[in-house]
Amino acid sequence: MSTAHDLVVERAESLDDAELADLCEATDAAIIEGGGFGWVDPQGREALTRHFRGVLLVPAIELFIAKLDGVPVGSAQLMRPPRNNEAQAFAAQLTHAYVAPYARGHGLARLLVTRVEERAAALGHRVLNLDVRDTQDTAITLFESLGYTRWGTHPAYARVRGQTVSGHYYYKLLETPRGRPLDIRARA
Ligand SMILES: CC(C)(COP(=O)(O)OP(=O)(O)OC[C@H]1O[C@@H](n2cnc3c(N)ncnc32)[C@H](O)[C@@H]1OP(=O)(O)O)[C@@H](O)C(=O)NCCC(=O)NCCS
């Protein structure tokens, strides 16, 4: 991994026009290369700008931006459970994690996922869930190396260009600054 670059991951509460333009470019580049984001076809600046502005308005979603040498090149979203889901308030979801192809291999995705985990733990969540298409080999290697446990596979997880693709479901127990470790046991 190169260390000559400046790697930063920030939680975005707002984005200026220049940041949004870079983020939209990174997002379309990742979509064209083959995904991660739920989109299959590139969306263009206008639609993606609307998407990210909308994301910033949703209280249950936190947006994290990965920057390479100060330029937004990827993002991830931390989705918190709705307030009415008290029984699952301890769990959150990591979604839409990607880094543009031109910024890969520097360790940004590892940093992105780690920052989301730290934030989820700081908010009191004890579990982080995620799911990923079977075709996303790099992401699968990354998540497994970060300690995510695969608990299931959905054979009809996504449809991409007319093909049905399976997908894997993962969870990770988070270290929280306070509280007892989570007890996991089957119902007796
Ligand atoms: C998965 C993805 C985010 C990785 O981004 P990245 O910034 O290049 O990743 P990093 O540089 O942080 O590398 C993280 C790990 O991925 C793995 N990895 C990175 N590049 C790899 C490659 N070319 N081949 C195989 N594994 C690779 C390694 O395990 C690496 O860990 P290391 O620190 O031990 O080398 C990026 O490839 C991507 O956006 N893919 C498409 C979207 C996607 O699959 N998203 C996840 C589903 S939500």
Automatic annotation (TrEMBL):
Keywords: Acyltransferase, Transferase. Residues 10-176 form the N-acetyltransferase domain. The keyword Transferase applies. This is GNAT family N-acetyltransferase. It comes from Teichococcus aerophilus. The lineage of its organism: Bacteria, Pseudomonadati, Pseudomonadota, Alphaproteobacteria, Acetobacterales.
